[in-house]
Amino acid sequence: MAVHPQGAPEREPQLLLLIPAYNEEARIGPVLRDYVRYFRAEYRGGFRLVVVLNGCHDRTLDVVKAAAEEVGGIEWLEFPAPIGKGGALIEGLRLAPQTDLIGYVDADGATPPRAFHDLIRNMPGYDCVIGSRWLAASKLGEVQPFKRRLASRIFHLLVQGLFWMNIRDTQCGAKVARREAVERIHPDLRTADLAFDINFLYCLQRAGFRVLELPTEWTDKIGSKIRLGRSSLTMFLSIVRLRLVYSPFYNLLAPLRPLEEWLYIKLGAPPALPRPDGARRSTPPRGAAG
Ligand SMILES: Nc1nc2c(ncn2[C@@H]2O[C@H](COP(=O)(O)OP(=O)(O)O)[C@@H](O)[C@H]2O)c(=O)[nH]1
Ligand SMILES: [Mg+2]
User: Fold this and answer.
1) What residues are paired with 17 via a beta bridge?
2) Largest CA distance in the chain
3) What domains appear along the chain, each with residue ranges and CATH number?
4) Among 22, 77, 142, 228, which residue has the most ligand 1 atoms within 8 Å of its CB, making it the best to mutate?
5) Which atom of ligand 1 is nearest to the CA of 105?
6) Phi, psi of 144 (to 5 degrees)
7) Mind listing the pLDDT tens digit for each residue in 229-272?
8) What is this structure's pTM?
């Protein structure tokens, strides 16, 4: 614990934690209670937890409301349409101006609260800290099924080949960033599906923000909402699309845009949002390193 010379515990920044939820009635209840209880007891700064429900057709909202009544301190945003994990986070990240740090974790409790707290403790000197399951010191409980791990490594190679971000695990659901960084890149967040994290990290790095990848604690939970085949194809489409958005060819490819939309619909995935007013790009933040 960081302590002032006088011995008083140092205050931590205000934190707003988003939890995207898609039909999570079976998994989210205990996770909400654990997070609220942990952060109330251990975090020395303001803490808000906001669940972003997207396209839920089960009782997720009732479960969230019951947890809110029981432990307090839980808010929610509800989008009846299936806007995707990325779509839900794009909406949730609009709350950045209301806090100092804004982050997200999955609804299934794969990341325990203390592991998320560790990311925050490492924020000094960085604009974004992300949990990683693929570093030597990562602590994995239950690992993902073999097929998922294989798909994850192939996806990683593709992402590295296309974006050169040098991040081993872009897909771990635990990330936290400074308000200023999120505000700056928010207009460039257009990926609604599970490739959202690539969009988020690439825009941060491109704008000169400092991203730290840290080994984390993580355990696979049953009840994954991911259908491997479809999700992989959608994510592949999304990263190619993202690469093209940041290439000189994007405007030349305008005639292919209806095809892009058709492909997302065929895959049953939330379509990417069009780039706002044609050519808006992140600009480097003032005083940012590298
Ligand atoms: N697959 C999927 N997950 C979503 C969607 N919207 C929000 N999520 C959330 O994304 C998080 C990750 O999903 P999960 O099934 O745990 O993924 P996995 O652990 O990687 O298999 C959970 O919090 C989901 O509720 C969506 O449209 N599809
Ligand atoms: Mg999960």
Assistant:
1) 49, 103
2) 65
3) 15-266 (3.90.550.10)
4) 22
5) 23
6) -70, 160
7) 999 999 999 999 999 999 988 888 889 989 999 999 999 999 99
8) 0.92
